[in-house]
Structures are given as C-alpha cells and as structure tokens.
Amino acid sequence: MVKKNQKTIFCCQTCGFQAPKWMGKCPDCGTWDSFVEERLAVGSKPGASRAMTSVPTKPVSIDSIELESEHRLHTGIREFDRVLGGGIVAGTLILIGGDPGIGKSTLMLQALYGLAGQGQRVLYVSGEESIRQIRIRSKRLATVSSDLLVVSEVEIEAILAIVESMRPRVLVIDSIQTMFNSDLTSAPGSVSQVREATMRLMLMAKKSGIPTFLVGHVTKDGAIAGPKLLEHMVDTVLYFEGDRNHIFRILRAVKNRFGSTNEIGVFEMKDAGLDEVANPSAVFLSERPAGSAGSVVTASMEGTRPILVELQALASATNFGTPRRTILGLDPNRVALLAAVMEKKLGMHLMGYDIFMNVAGGVKVTEPAVDMAIVAAVASSFLDKAIIDSTVALGEIGLTGEVRAIGQVDTRIAECRKMGFTRCLVPEGNRKRLADMDGLEIVGVKTVDEAIESLF
C-alpha cells in the first residue's frame, strides 16, 4: 500500500515521459513497454533543486565576463586528448558510452593514471567493483599510482561529500546508472535517479571546476541507457565503438562544446590495456591481399585526419529472386543507390548478383567521398579483375553517373603519397586545382564510365 505522503507515477525509461497510469506505448518517443512505476515522496526537495537556489540569477553583460587563459589538462594519451579537442577543460562534464567489455573502464583508468603521473590527484568512483577488484585490474594494466585514489560508492550524497573534502583534479563516475539518491524512492538506474545524479554532478562540476567523466551503459540499440536528456545535460558525449572480436577500438565524439565532433581516436586492445594507434592507415592496410579482385583503397576524412581504408566487395550470382545486399561499415542505402547507377550507366546487371561489402578493420565510413571506391570494388568483383595495388579511388558519384568534387582532397592525396601509393583517381573538378606531384600520378575523371575505363 502506498503511503499518503507518496505519489505513484509511471515513467518512460527511454525519454523520461511521465504518466499517471501505465501505458503500453510511450506517446512521446514511441517506445513499447518502457513504463516503470516509480514513487516520489511529496514535499521532498531533491538536492538539485536546493543547489540551484544558490546560483545567482542576475543577468550580466557578456563582454564584462573576465576570461582566463584556457588551460587544458593533458592525459598523456594523444588520441584521447585529440577527441576531446586538445585536452580536458576545467568544469566540463563528459559522458562516455559503449558496449559492455569494449574498454570504457580501461580507458578511464589509463587516463587517470596519465594525470596522476603528472602529480595530479584524481578520484575514481566505482559503483560496480570493489576497491580490491579495481586494484587487481590496475595491476594488470600497470596503472598503479599513489595519486590515483579509488572508492566504491553508489550514494550520490556520500560521493559529493568525498569530492568536497579532497578536491580531486579530475573525477570519474563508473557508472552513472549505479548512482543512487536517497531523496528518491525509485531504484538505481531509473530515469529519475540517473537524471537527478547527473544534475547534482553537473552543478558540482560547474561550481568547483572539477572535470567529471560519467561512464554510461548502452542499450541493445547502441544508445546510452537512460533518458535522452542525459546527453543534453553534459558538455561532451563520446562513444567507444568497435567489435569485441576485433582488436581495434574507435573513440568518437558525437557532441563536444569545446572542440570538434569530427575527430576520432584509434586504439588497439592488448593484454595490458589500450594502446593508441598513431598511424591508423598503416595498421588498416597491413593485411591487405595483393592482386585480389574486389579490393580497393580509399581515403576517408575523420575530422582533420585522413585515414586510408580498404573496401572489399564480393558479387556472386544469386539463387533467389531478390538479391542480397549485406553491408558492413558502409551506408547500405548508399551502396544500393550506387549499384543502381552501375546498372543504368555501366550496363552491369547486378540485380542477378548478391553484393557483400566490408570495410577491413571494423571501421565505419559514411561520407560520400568514398563512392568511387565502392563502385570500383563492386566492379572489380563483378568483372573478376583486380585493381592495381598502388591505386587509390576518390570521388562522389551522382545519380546521373557524374563524378563530383570532394573536400580536403589535398590532405587525402598527401596521405596517399606518404603511404607509398603511386596512382590516385580523383574527380576532374578537384584535378583542375591540384598541382602535379613527383612520384604520384593523379587522374581526373568526369563520369563513372571514365573511372571504370581508367581502372580496368
């Protein structure tokens, strides 16, 4: 029986929508079977509300606000600092999510160890492991330091008290779904608990200037568990991507108030933890088969960094009425569109063939600049003719078969030259603005027909 001083509500665990009764489908986000009963004590004042009353509300002129020279903390992990925009900004709230076992806690422990090695006192709060378990993992990762303090705690009030007393340089909460606020009667991990804990930590970070990392679980759809509001409350959202069966991990920023959202960091998972990959192009091309039909190299821009990746295609005759299109690492709709262009403009009857495509190394490439490489790989497999190993294909393809110019082509070609490639296929619109380079033949094409003739 519910007491009189308590109110029962039903809350959507996906978006946070509240309803007085249970509903099968959330009217706000459309998720089925996501409502959970929660009880909130009437008259209780959550900590976030108390803290917000102390924030001054008088508006000030923006040009009267004094700015100190921006000083970012460097973790010693260059790939991690690159994704953050050059380092950690004081008072920032950073959310990092990823699949279970992908390496989120490992990355956080290694980053804190890098800061502790600079004499910075840092705090690692775990709601999932005991301090003994953290010590065992730290020994395996060789991240033991006297300035790296650990505590196992889930009560948000106790954590804030610890932070207030010791004033760490950086704080890590692993994970935000385990945090619990006694003012709320709902279970840890519920929408109200996650939202309240994040609000309290956000106010603490902004007031004290302590950078705070929140490790977040993800759902089966790949989104961070909890309300979408969580991503709006933080300053930076990072996703740790990669297949646990592959050794490579990619750290990608999808939101960053203090840097670019196009940068990625590439890591290699080893027995002793994560090791940053300084030259991803060399790693992704290290096992490329020589003289194989269906394989082609292209240059993808990830922020300011060009990465050479290998696209693989397999076109095989189908035994069914509808051909299969199995695509990994690329946009399936884009591949289907380009297959239709090849049928119309090149006369290749791909409707009778299954098409399988993959980006070697588990990388995801979505930009249109790799259209030429997709067409080249499919045509190579369809014709069973290998493309010269020293060739790189670049360019966007339109529905009429034209090859459109792409951006940052100078940077891409420079990376191709550095990696030893001697021939580069580019759109004619880019070729007109490019100077000749010693040791590199740059071929400009206007249509997909010209591209296929140049390749084969």
Number of extended strands: 21
Strand line-up of the largest beta sheet: 6-5-7-8-4-9-10-11-12
Q: How helical, in percent, are the residues?
A: 25-40%
The best one-word shape is globular
Count of DSSP H/I helices: 13
Low-confidence stretches: 43-54
Q: Provide the CATH architecture of the largest domain.
A: 3-Layer(aba) Sandwich
Given helix and strand content, the structural type is alpha/beta
The CATH homologous superfamily name of the largest domain equals P-loop containing nucleotide triphosphate hydrolases
Question: What is the total domain count?
Answer: 3
Mean pLDDT: 87
Kindly estimate the percentage of residues that lie in beta strands according to DSSP.
25-35%
Q: The biggest beta sheet, please?
A: 9 strands, mixed
Give the CA-CA distance, first to last residue. 77 Å
Radius of gyration: 26 Å
CATH fold-level assignment of the largest domain: Rossmann fold
Q: What is the name of the CATH class of the largest domain?
A: Alpha Beta
